[in-house]
Amino acid sequence: MYSEKVMDHFQNPRNVGEIEDASGVGTVGNAKCGDIMRIYLDIDDDQIIRDCKFKTFGCGAAVATSSMATELVKGKSIYEALKITNKAVMEALDGLPPVKVHCSLLAEEAIHAALWDYAQKHDITIEGLEKPKADISEDEEEEDY
Amino acid sequence: MEKKIIYMDNAATTPVKPAVLEAMLPYFTEKFGNPSSIYSISSENKNAITEARETIAQTLHTAPENIYFTAGGSESDNWALKATADAYGTKGKHIITTKIEHHALLHTCGYLEQKGFEVTYLDVDENGLVDPAKLEQAIRPDTILISVMFANNEIGTIEPIAEIGKIAKEHGVLFHTDAVQAYTQVPIDVDEMNIDMLSASGHKINGPKGIGFLYIRKGVKIRSFVHGGAQERHRRAGTENVPGIIGLAKAAQIATGDMSERTAKEREIRDHLIARIETEIPYARLNGDRTKRLPNNVNFSFQFIEGESMLIMLDGKGICASSGSACTSGSLDPSHVLLAIGLPHEIAHGSLRLTISDETTMEEADYVVDQLKEIVEWLRSMSPLYEDFVKKARS
After folding, report:
1. Given an 8 Å threshold on Cβ–Cβ distance, is A33 in contact with B382?
2. Which of these CATH numbers, 3.30.70.100, 3.30.300.30, 3.90.1010.10, 1.10.10.10, describes A4-122?
3. Chain B: nearest CA to A116, how far in angstroms?
4. How many CB atoms lie within 10 A of CB B318?
5. Residue A138 reports pLDDT greater than 50
6. Which of B319, B303, B311, B292 is nearest to B352 (CA)?
7. Residue B312 contacts A, CB cutoff 8 Å
8. Which residues of A form the catalytic set?
């Protein structure tokens, strides 16, 4: 059901982990729906993304799209990163099954959420970046355990 | 080198046993005659079907004329519900079932609701058990049918069928049970248990796909499911699936014959799997009842991880299993069974079902747990939920 690239990025995901004192962290998704993505960005003074890591709770496609998204934003400026769409993530993975397209949307949102966090922390406005919808980095979901 | 496959998804389907296939094969070629024709090659087939019906009837301790061959479990469930609604709809329009039934039953109930029937979906407890007292309270003067599965396909819980049958009989309400998972795993006596209708399937018991049966107690008014010829006492028309019927009967005969030794062996491996997972993998929850449990079923939820990713990684190690996660169901919701036993969504997403067979070995069970440990650990290391949990625990 998955392309070879998806399988590769699921089984050998790139950039798994955390960045301590990250410039920006974005968490999107919902444990109820079975997908949560967290992206960490390390952004230098020239607004270039030096490093990017992720953690994901979700299916094979969720892990693979997170992995690919981190690969795509690394080395980019924040404005270039902002332009990375879910389509670009999907294309880079040689496509996703229709029921998994939402995973690529989540990856796009996760990048935006991390950029938003960076902008907030540094008190800047990134043109074209809107407040992410699904940031659930607050602890509210924990209650359910 | 060909990768060895460890198949632990026997609740999904099973391979046809060689003896079953051998019994079926002649009925594809030289014994191809239509059982309804009068020449000898056909009447021989008619006799073969009669014998098969007798074999099946014996496994349930009933008479052969109460057995109707169908295309499988889903058809049997559909037939039992729709035909009962049809025949008894003037008497009443209320049906009682549970929240953990197979979709073949739940979606048929949904269809009947659209047709003006009212359905009570009983809750189950945290182990998936139906409370007979609550079931009795739900019975109304217009209740025409109670349908409770014999054993659950996901969590393996065996329901108190004899008690439910007794209640149904005392109240004069028909009782149907979907025994697709329980048949040949658990002894069944339809008279002792007061079962009026029972669904079963061939491919779950090392028989072929596309064949099953519905047991209907004599005296139950039941309408034709397929109109046409006189097959199955005019109740289900269509030239019989002769090889399927022969295969189903052979599989049922073998599986009933060796039930006690086979299930004893399965129980031993099942309990070994459960014990090792519980001691070696933290934050794992056994789903389903510990003792009222199918001999071949193991079902765990692993916190902080998602089921589909577990399945893909297990597949990479040659292990076939299944999950109740949303990603395997094609919807955003995890399994209705896991939600019905009270699991929060995120824990239901991380469920894993292993269903073994009598061919599963202890070595295979150990290999699966060894792999599973690593996989769960790896997926947790990648999980933001686990990260939050660990940080919270530290602070």
Report:
1. no
2. 3.90.1010.10
3. 19
4. 15
5. no
6. B311
7. yes
8. 33, 103
To the nearest 10°, report the CA torsion of B93, B96, B102, B104: -10
pLDDT mean over A107-118: 96
Beta bridge partners of B199: B178, B214
The pLDDT, as a whole number, for residue B329 is 54
Residue B79 C-alpha from the chain's centroid: 16
Flag whether the pTM goes above 0.90: yes
What is the rounded CA–CA span in Å between residue A102 and residue A62? 9
Please, is B232 exposed, middle or buried when counting C-beta atoms within 10 Å of its C-beta (0-12, 13-18, 19+)?
A: buried
Residue pair A145/B303 in contact (Cβ under 8 Å)? The answer is: yes
Distance, CA of B182 to CA of B153 (rounded, Å) = 9
B-chain residues near A60 (CB < 8 A) = 308-309, 312, 327
End-to-end CA distance of chain A: 32
Nearest-angstrom CA–CA distance, B387 and B395: 12
CB contact under 8 A, A145 and B330: no
User: A33-92 pLDDT, tens per residue?
Assistant: 789 999 999 999 999 999 999 999 999 999 999 999 999 999 999 999 999 999 999 999
The segments of chain B whose pLDDT lies below 70 read 1-2, 326-332
Check if A40 contacts B (Cβ < 8 Å): no
Long-range contacts at B135-140 (CB < 8 A, ≥ 24 apart): B135/B96, B135/B164, B135/B167, B136/B167, B136/B171, B138/B96, B139/B96, B139/B167, B139/B171, B139/B173, B140/B92, B140/B94
Catalytically annotated residue among B327, B328, B367, B373: B327
Note the maximum CA span of chain A.
Answer: 44
Structure tokens at B227: 């109109």
Question: What ipTM goes with this model?
Answer: 0.88
